[in-house]
Amino acid sequence: MADSKKRVPMNHVIGFILSLVMTLVAAWAAIQSDLPVTWVIIGIMILALLQAGVQLFMFMHVTEASSGNGHVPWNMMFHGFALAGIIVAGSLFVMSFGHDHGDTGEHQQHEQQESEDHSGH
Amino acid sequence: MHITDILVTGEPIIYGAMVSMALVGIALLFILTYFKKWKWLWSEWLTTVDHKKIGVMYILSALLMLFRGGVDAMMMRVQLAFPDLGFLNSQHYNEIFTTHGTIMIIFMAMPFLIGLMNIIVPLQIGARDFAFPYLNALSFWSFFFGMALFNISFVIGGSPDAGWTSYTPLSGAAMSPGPGQNFYLMGLQLSGIGTLATGINLMVTILKMRAPGMKLFHMPIFTWSTLVTCFIIVFAFPILTVALALLTIDRIFGAQFFTLTGEGLPMMWANLFWMWGHPEVYIVILPAFGIFSEVIATFAKKRLFGYNVMVWSMIVIALLSFLVWVHHFFTMGAGAFVNSVFSVSTMLIAVPTGVKIFNWLATLYKSKIEFTVPMLWSLAFIPSFILGGVTGVMLGMAAADYQFHNSYFLIAHFHYVLIAGTVFACFAGLVFWYPKMFGHKMNERLGKWAFWLFFFGFHVCFFPQYFLGLDGMPRRLFITNVAEWLPLNVISTVGAFGMGLGFIVFVYNVYYSFRYSARETTGDSWNGNGRTLEWATTTPVPYYNFATVPYVDEIDPYIRMKEEGKTTFEEDKVKPIHMPSYTGQPFIMMAFLGLASFGLVFEWMYVAVFGLIGAVFMMIRRSFDYDDGYYVPVEEIKRTEKKARGL
Amino acid sequence: MAAEELKTGPLEYRTQEGQMGIMGFWIFLGAEVVLFATLFATYAVLFGRTADAPLPSELFEPGIVLVMTFLLLTSSFTCGLAIHEMRRGSVKGLILWMVITLALGLGFLGFEIYEFVHYAHEGATIQSSAFWSAFFILAGTHGLHVTLGIGWAILLLIQIKQRGLTNVTSRKFFIISLYWHFLDVIWIFIFTSVYLIGMVI
């Protein structure tokens, strides 16, 4: 680690400034801006993921070769976050019961047809 | 509070159980005192960090739980065959099917497999012990106290009665007041901590402590199955931890997660439970696949066909296992799109599983099969498991599931996969590695009796249940005096007693073999057919496992070693071996946590807080504990090895 | 267990035990990701189910939450500096930055406790609705992790005073730094998906 000889670790400082900036941007987008809600949500979630990346790669040394642990830390984080996505998105998907996505007339028609089918039996 | 307030009263069967438990307890105390075995118990077992001894304790506990869960099953079968007899009342029946399911999955199947992993995995990869031996002891004791807590519920406080899935709102505080459901929540929580720790421990062990030269794709297939299983454990068990905690908070602290008031969402419990629950069934089946693969390769005397494909299919199964959970509650009322997605992902799992079946058959093809007891269990597994698997695909079709759901068709399906898969594998693995654990084989003749009784009993018991299900008999039903169901129910009960008889013969065989079996003289117990490193050590295995760890650069390394006359004792290469010291801390720490959980069950907060403080104190002690273990001197290793090898 | 010890590289990676401990902790963090993901999923599903209790948009205050976020972000940075000092071999620097980290963590906890008490006064408790149960348990689990982390770090500070920098103590500090950064990662997601989104909708 050439970095450990230095008095001030530049990558830590850069990471810190980056995370401060991203936090402020996210807060501004959510509280002050007039952007559409969907875009705000997508935007701040991306910022959160980037910040998590800053922590993992710049502070937590997730890919440090001298650890002797190969790809394992990276692998666990990758699968953990992938699974986190599955758990959150999957739960929302399942617990919506598939009834409230799409608020167009088409959907209602479809439901109506379904209930007719049922009454036909 | 009076003692009769917490003891279960008014049930003759439970009084009988109390008396017999008290008698067994007194007998144990007497034996330990009379033969002056207390010190031995403490210093050899309760404080051990040796993976082999911990494994033995896991397997003993699992056999005990197989007995308890089996007795529950028999009682249910008696009730169903003679519904007018009044053998059980409805409340007792509810409690019994709940404890049967929970015990068989959490306290029988998992510890049995984890016990086998404990003993065998370090031996297969050439390791001296686990990566974290202390943590391993901690895991065992957390399982043990969780198990004890769950099992005392039927004499103290009353058993849980909302099914092993513990669906809300039934299992919530409003509809199930009292300690019963709390026993379920705290017992599972406590043992779940241990399971997660074991998962981490085994993963690090396998990833970091393999013999020099052994790449991941040189590992024995059982070790591979363990690695994949641990991956699932690490990512699935936290979901259970949270689900249990949320329901506990609902019940004890009045939160509204799964309630009908406060806009809670009871189906969210089902969602969380099965997000853990489905991976859980792969946690208990993948190691079983690993065991069958080892046994089949050994007694077909051939290298496992398609090793790489076998590994990859396990990995694919592991990844898919997180994407199918909704098929357990297709009838919740979700729309066609939600159900279709999970229907498709469910059926996808049949593909890698089918690949594995064909690979086992291809391994057997044109081989000289030796029909030993473990091989019989493995051969019986293939057709039986296919019956379970195919009916699983039927259940996976969401539209059809509206017919099958919660009928005996489902019961038959999952008993076909869990018994023919997991239980057969537990028996196969135990018999197969028995000589490694205890220094003698199990008697083959008695073993075959146990196998055939259990095998026929199993099919007679569960095959009729498919038809009972198609005839409309729902699960968890206590009065079944419908004329069309009765004959099949009687047949099923006869089969269940056949399985019970098989189990009794199996246990008798343990005693019989201890008395009469020839002691092992070599480490390679099965007529020199051992293929992997666990057979390269002497029997019984010395506590440091390997005097010298061989260099490994292929699958089945022991075959080459035998050809070249190499052993795990190369005298000039012996170096002092670093070993961890025994400690009573894990036992005490988990006893405190067990006490805390017991306090929470009855909502006695001062007991809970006291237990928690004790556990935290033990953790702080551990943090300041810099005991670095000890070194086994070269002289002692040489002396032990020479004696064991008759040099 | 190899007794061999590498002669170069960070102290915490030099022995097999050190490497294994750190790998084990990474795997544990993988499990923690899933643990929090389950809490996030519960929160997301129960979002909007406030029953008769106040709405989150009525109670959430951007000011306090931003201060809490900056406290935790800064503590994560100082924790990184502590490990940097440790790798330079400076026990003094390690202790100094670690104490600052803990002070910031305590500040964070103080604000969180104030926040919870304030919400409870406004009629939003763990018992008042499904949404508030999910909120308190999600944020509270994170807060509990911070509390445990502070207690744990104090134990390690005592140990470094007693023993100085060794393979073992540096491994322990490295692991707690992973834990601390990880809590920051979780907080970023709580900040974003609970507070910011709660204020948008």
From TrEMBL, chain A:
Protein name, per record: Quinol oxidase subunit 4
Highest taxon, organism lineage: Bacteria
Keywords: Cell membrane, Membrane, Oxidoreductase, Transmembrane, Transmembrane helix
GO cellular component, one term: plasma membrane
Single GO term (MF): oxidoreductase activity, acting on diphenols and related substances as donors, oxygen as acceptor
Chief location category: membrane
A Pfam family that the UniProt record links to this protein: COX4_pro
Organism this protein belongs to: Halobacillus trueperi
Location of region: Disordered: 102-121
Compartments where found: Cell membrane
Physiological role: Catalyzes quinol oxidation with the concomitant reduction of oxygen to water.
GO biological process, one term: ATP synthesis coupled electron transport
Family recorded in the similarity comment: Belongs to the cytochrome c oxidase bacterial subunit 4 family.
Protein's membrane topology: Multi-pass membrane protein
Transmembrane portions of the chain: 12-31, 37-60, 72-95
The keyword Manganese appears for this protein: no
Record's catalysed reaction(s): 2 a quinol + O2 = 2 a quinone + 2 H2O
From TrEMBL, chain B:
InterPro entries documented for this protein: Cyt_c_oxase-like_su1_dom, Cyt_c_oxase-like_su1_sf, Cyt_C_Oxase_1, QoxB
Cofactor: Cu cation; ferriheme a
PROSITE patterns with a match to the protein in the record: COX1
Enzyme class, spelled out: oxidoreductase
GO term, biological process aspect, one: electron transport coupled proton transport
Pathway: Energy metabolism; oxidative phosphorylation
Subcellular location: Cell membrane
UniProt keyword list: Cell membrane, Copper, Electron transport, Heme, Hydrogen ion transport, Ion transport, Iron, Membrane, Metal-binding, Oxidoreductase, Respiratory chain, Translocase, Transmembrane, Transmembrane helix, Transport
Domain Cytochrome oxidase subunit I profile stretches: 36-553
Membrane topology: Multi-pass membrane protein
Enzyme Commission code(s) on record: 1.10.3.-
TM segment ranges: 12-35, 56-76, 96-121, 133-156, 183-209, 221-249, 269-292, 304-326, 332-355, 376-400, 412-434, 446-468, 488-511, 587-620
GO function term, MF aspect, one: cytochrome-c oxidase activity
Cofactor binding comment, as recorded: Binds a copper B center.
One Pfam family cited in the UniProt record for this chain: COX1
Reactions performed catalytically: 2 a quinol + O2 = 2 a quinone + 2 H2O; 4 Fe(II)-[cytochrome c] + O2 + 8 H(+)(in) = 4 Fe(III)-[cytochrome c] + 2 H2O + 4 H(+)(out)
GO cellular component terms, A-Z: plasma membrane; respiratory chain complex
Task performed by this protein: Catalyzes quinol oxidation with the concomitant reduction of oxygen to water.
PANTHER family: CYTOCHROME BO(3) UBIQUINOL OXIDASE SUBUNIT 1, CYTOCHROME C OXIDASE SUBUNIT 1
Protein family membership: Belongs to the heme-copper respiratory oxidase family.
Protein's UniProt name: Quinol oxidase subunit 1
Organism the protein comes from: Halobacillus aidingensis
Automatic annotation (TrEMBL), chain C:
Enzyme Commission number, as recorded: 1.10.3.-
Keyword Transmembrane: yes
Catalytic function, reaction form: 2 a quinol + O2 = 2 a quinone + 2 H2O
Keywords tagged on the record: Cell membrane, Membrane, Oxidoreductase, Transmembrane, Transmembrane helix
Superkingdom as given in the UniProt entry: Bacteria
Residue intervals passing through the bilayer: 21-44, 64-83, 95-114, 134-158, 178-198
Gene Ontology CC terms: plasma membrane
GO biological process: aerobic electron transport chain; ATP synthesis coupled electron transport
Topology class, membrane: Multi-pass membrane protein
Any one Gene Ontology molecular-function term assigned to this protein's record: cytochrome-c oxidase activity
Domain Heme-copper oxidase subunit III family profile: 23-199
Pfam family, one: COX3
CDD domains according to UniProt: Ubiquinol_oxidase_III
Family label: Belongs to the cytochrome c oxidase subunit 3 family.
Role noted for this protein: Catalyzes quinol oxidation with the concomitant reduction of oxygen to water.
Protein name according to UniProt: Quinol oxidase subunit 3
